[in-house]
Amino acid sequence: MESTVEFTVATAPFARAAARADRLLPPRAARAGGVRLAVAGRQLRLSASGEEAAVWGDVPATVNTDGVVAVGRRALAATLASLDASEVRVRVEGSRLAIRTGSARFALPLLDPAALGPAPEPPPVAGRTPAGAFTAAVAAVAGAASRDGLPLFSGVRVRSDADRLRLAATDRFRLAVASVPWSGEGPVDVLIPAGILAEAARMLAKPETAEVTVLADADRLGLSWAEGGVVVSSLALPYPDAQLERMLGVRPECVMDVDADLLRAAVERAMPFAGPIGTVTLEAADGVVVVRGSDDGAGDSREEVKAQTTGSTTASYQGRYLLDSLRAFGDDRVVLRFQTGIQPTSITAADTDRTELRYLVVPLRKSP
Amino acid sequence: MESTVEFTVATAPFARAAARADRLLPPRAARAGGVRLAVAGRQLRLSASGEEAAVWGDVPATVNTDGVVAVGRRALAATLASLDASEVRVRVEGSRLAIRTGSARFALPLLDPAALGPAPEPPPVAGRTPAGAFTAAVAAVAGAASRDGLPLFSGVRVRSDADRLRLAATDRFRLAVASVPWSGEGPVDVLIPAGILAEAARMLAKPETAEVTVLADADRLGLSWAEGGVVVSSLALPYPDAQLERMLGVRPECVMDVDADLLRAAVERAMPFAGPIGTVTLEAADGVVVVRGSDDGAGDSREEVKAQTTGSTTASYQGRYLLDSLRAFGDDRVVLRFQTGIQPTSITAADTDRTELRYLVVPLRKSP
């Protein structure tokens, strides 16, 4: 194959594939980073890879000349993002890749596709899962990973069970665990950086994908669907699976059933009164939960939210952790299970859907 | 009047007045800063003042006990912003101002209203102008002021003419001048920091105000309308009015009539090719304007946009200045008047509405 191509392609899917390649790979490499365009038969395949991840996207194209070329992925994404023409004609002209619409020509410097290295071989198929449930699970769980702590806590643990794929993340102050339906062919047992997993899962949402194929080996996790796929490297760190399992064994002293949205709104209203570390207190008893914020400087707040309660309790939390966890349940009804002391409070949906989600939030130590 | 009040008030206008007081005054003073609540008859007046500005807002209220109290303006705004109850009951309870809905009570520490100093006397009425035209003029002109340069160039010059109120701002690379209809009673001749003027003008938009009363003396500009008002201090700096006037005397070598939105979109598409300082070239001739970006590293772009042209010219600009100025005209048709050398290019609307707006953009020196 020579460094020459000529093809016509619909702008929207081409722009989407270019944007994905640009977004998934780390920005620090973006200026230098290239994207391969391989055209053959009736298809254009974009592919790009970095140390942490590889991504590809397939777009139907009318191909005049087969070949493989490479251009900068930031430049390609930026050029295609703002076009309003419905299709573009693309071909090599000298040392540039020319992209034409009816009234415009954009010419990107060609890179040497060989310099990008070989496209990595994706890991084998491990199983399949419904894309919507998977995307929801990643969105809910990735938020509980730490943004700036130890690398271990910046990851999402992904493991396959008999018929569920389980995702978990913790920053030690809260823990989120979700599981989704799983038809497995091989095991999944990896720890994926939360940010890149969240970005990869967002790709499934547009256009809507029904089912995602999960690829895995000992060091990598991949997702593949009709339009393309991604492969991400696992963090090579031992995860505290046993501790996580112990935390999930909840022995409640009080159980409360409440509308997640109403409780979240009340916690938000308490936040201006929650003092420097944002302490919000929940007091559950007799068909109501009282949400309090109190701080000498800021004043105090007290709000009642209707709830079904069994037992009674008072516990304080960093309000932002409560907000994050309640947001993950939208306007569903949730069940809060309070334990004694500083053992975590569990939050689950009252009616479980395909994404089984559980959030654990560690309460603040009580002042003496 | 004692430090005691009791009243019931609709939440939405109360929250709006509190948000305005909080937003207009500088954030550095926000924690310490208080807002006065004066209730009498059927009205609640919120007022707050800092070194640069004063703001007030009037809200109809059902008053049980007249009086004046003060609380933190950030705290009041944050509390009211998130309430979903349609009205609130407010009264002094001990050292707190209690704000109650059906299910919640929020208690803010009272401040000493005397410690906030006296509410400043607003300047006298100088004239009246349509609020919509004024808001549009401020939005377009304030963007041309400098964000981080000399204080002189961070201001909007506001002066009254016989039947127009003129606003102008420049950062020396571009100049925006707008004028709006004016029924004057006294002169306006001030220089107002662009950021605070833009914030004040935004207040007029919600709920929509038909006419704004302009207040002015030698050192201050005020805006007043049914729901409230603001007063802002003038910068005490001599403005280069004569130079500004000279810049407005345009002798075009080429005149071009083009759709602002189409030209803006083409300039945006050229930006990825515009190199490190974002150089975009316009080449006008024979019923078309060619928009070019070119940079050795980034490649090049060429796009044609239909235009009516008289004469021909080629000029280069920092693309972001072109974008700012074209955005100010939305999807109107605009007339560009190109001058020779590095004399500024003038942009005006083809059909003038009540806000007469003119943008001048200085081209880049041609490379030899």
How is this structure best described in words?
With 368 residues, the first copy, chain A, is an alpha+beta fold. Chain A has 3 domains: 6-116, DNA Polymerase III, subunit A, domain 2 (DNA Polymerase III, Chain A, domain 2, Roll); 125-244, DNA Polymerase III, Chain A, domain 2, CATH 3.10.150; 249-361, DNA Polymerase III, subunit A, domain 2 (DNA Polymerase III, Chain A, domain 2, Roll), CATH 3.10.150. Chain A has 7 helices and 26 strands. Chain A has helices spanning 11-24, 73-81, 131-142, 194-202, 241-248, 260-270, 319-327, and strands spanning 6-10, 34-40, 43-49, 53-65, 67-72, 87-93, 96-100, 104-109, 125-130, 155-160, 164-170, 174-181, 183-184, 189-193, 211-216, 220-225, 228-233, 254-259, 279-285, 288-295, 299-306, 308-310, 313-318, 333-338, 345-349, 356-361. In chain A, strands 1, 2, 3, 4, 5, 6, 7, 8, 9, 13, 15, 16 and 17 form a 13-stranded antiparallel beta sheet that branches. Chain A has a 9-stranded antiparallel beta sheet with strand order 14-10-11-12-26-25-24-18-22, with helices on both faces. In chain A, helix 1 (11-24) packs across helix 2 (73-81), helix 3 packs antiparallel against helix 4 (194-202) and helix 6 packs antiparallel against helix 7 (319-327). The longest helix of chain A has 14 residues, at 11-24. Chain A is elongated. Chains A and B meet through helix 2, strand 8, helix 6 and strand 21 of A and helix 2, strand 8, helix 6 and strand 21 of B. Strand 21 of chain A pairs antiparallel with strand 8 (104-109) of chain B, so a sheet runs across the interface.
